[in-house]
Amino acid sequence: MSNVSDTKFESRIGIFESECRKNSLALTVQRRAIYDALSCRKDHPTADQVYEDIKSKLKGVSRTTVYRVLDTLVTIGVAKRISIPDPKARFDGDMQRHHHLTCMKCGTVFDLHDESLNNLQAPLGNDNGFEIMDYSITFTGLCSACRSTIKYPAK
Amino acid sequence: MSNVSDTKFESRIGIFESECRKNSLALTVQRRAIYDALSCRKDHPTADQVYEDIKSKLKGVSRTTVYRVLDTLVTIGVAKRISIPDPKARFDGDMQRHHHLTCMKCGTVFDLHDESLNNLQAPLGNDNGFEIMDYSITFTGLCSACRSTIKYPAK
DNA sequence: ACACGCTTGACAATTTGTACCATCTGCAAT
DNA sequence: ATTGCAGATGGTACAAATTGTCAAGCGTGT
Prior knowledge:
The structure is a homodimer of 155-residue chains.
Chain A lengths: L8 H14 L6 H12 L6 H8 L8 H14 L3 E2 L9 E2 L6 E5 L5 E4 L18 E12 L1 H6 L6
Parallel strand pairs in A: 3-5
Antiparallel strand pairs in A: 1-2, 3-4
Helix pairs in contact in A: 1-2, 2-3, 2-4, 3-4
Chain A binds a DNA duplex (30 and 30 nucleotides) through α2 and α4.
């Protein structure tokens, strides 16, 4: 029950709603729709991708709202901004600790769930008073598709 | 001799120049200036911050050139794009493996050099054929300045 | 059902990143 | 040292991404 990511759709919505109430945020249709759209996806959409997703279902949504709500979701802790070398903000509805493989050629991001990476000894007291609350590892390299097409330059 | 990050300015420039030659790239004043500006900084500037840095010294530089050269530096392996949850591209002239502490409140990024984190067992064969070449850990939390001002909401 | 205040939508403004092309410059061959 | 060419730059224009503003709308507690 404490593991958000394993829960089914109904529970996820329940968690979202209770987090909203806890923070006295109104349960608007927009927030619901945006949270749904994000948490249903397995990939790591940009704000605009989420916007594209929902604008058919929710006619008249504003792009501004999508940006704003995604930000809210991150703030109340039901979504994350992910860390990859990409000039666009990307969001992740999977709150379970996990990591990412990012292809340096095509930019695709793959999830990596690996228990052995989830209990790193965070170096406390290292940087004058920084309080670490979470972490995520970004592996960079080449996905199989790009590996098979790349020609390494002869040195 | 194999450790780029510990070297002094003159060596860094030397490494930069030899990498350029190796890739048959012309040693232009712009490339030098941009590499200098980046590798002298301890933080993780955006492209525009680098541009602001050098446009006083190098009158007439184009913003386009800064974007272009930063990209080149990453390609030839003398700089990195860093992975933090930020919608702007950020660059790092420190090529030694290290990690980052990012404050979720103010967004400041601190370097974290910690040997014990530099030899993670990268889970091979995990994701159908992805070839891991490097990794970096992003710790998220609160810096000391923000910790002292934040009021935790009463639950 | 009512009123208050949080949210949204629409548009504008900014910021960030890319495309294009004429001009310039590093560099190697003379 | 001079020259010629390929690659690099500057600058404008453009596209994409994100943020600011504010009147109007909707969710919530009463």
